[in-house]
Amino acid sequence: MPESITRLAPSPTGALHLGNARTFLVNWLLARRYGWRVLMRVEDLDGPRVKKGSDRKMLDELAWLGLTWETPVVYQSQRAEFYRSALESLIKSGWAYPCVCSRKDIRQAGGAPHEDDAAEAYPGTCRGRFRDASDAAATGRPVAWRVRVTNEPIAVADRFASVKTYNLAKTCGDFVIFKTDGLAAYQLAVVVDDSQAGVDAIVRGDDLLESAARQIHLRRLLGLSPQPAHWHLPLVVGPDGKRLAKRHGDTRLEYYRSRGVSPERILGLLAFWSGIIDRRRDASIGELSAVFDISKVPRERIIFTRQDDQFLCGG
Ligand code: GLU
Question: pTM, whole model, 2 decimals?
Fold first, then answer.
């Protein structure tokens, strides 16, 4: 079945920078290429990290680049009731349980430090420990909710990164689906939202590949089908190989825009990185829509270089 609906899902926890702009652009161009509808969902559940006004700014900058989407824009903060009912259904089916472990408890219970993934996995301390939420609350500690995982491989048949297989018992263990602040965790919210909106094509950074396995697990438990198709794209990194961040200088769109850099110049760089054009030059969104080809997008990480910065700012 051909895919038909995708979504752009920015987290308003910071500014839009060249790295996430590039992922959104490829997502949008894929949608153009295949005729998918494009929805916009603001992922504003991460309480303390959400920055006021950042959602408006991000949307404004994406529109400035020439991206379009359907309205209304969905805000996760407005959808608590749906996440709550998914949680209730997982409690009822015995897959979700309350947990009072702090990060420190989990670290101390962690496995051998050289076994990277096992050391990260939740050791299951609260699995089967409490009768219900009030039993857990009686400890006087904040209560979160975790979902059980199984000790078996989950394959993410990614259209871009190829097939990747994860055993969640090893990579993360039972993971949090509702946080102690009473808000849904990212994994649960995304599954509920994508399913309700009929999203069947997900394009995002490959730092979320393992999350895709968690989301497949949740969808199965909640009886949500079919699974969406995924395209996980390599991230943009700095010359030191680390994910693009403040340490690499100011790569926010806002910064370039305020210095008079045109959207065509930014698009030209993002398109060059994505194999759409063969050298750094200005490009319009219309031109990119006409020539975009996912098979040209490099499989490797993209390195933001001095030449890139010079191209943007040096005229
Ligand atoms: N909000 C996430 C981000 O900005 C994307 C989540 C997703 O696409 O599932 O990285």
Answer: 0.94
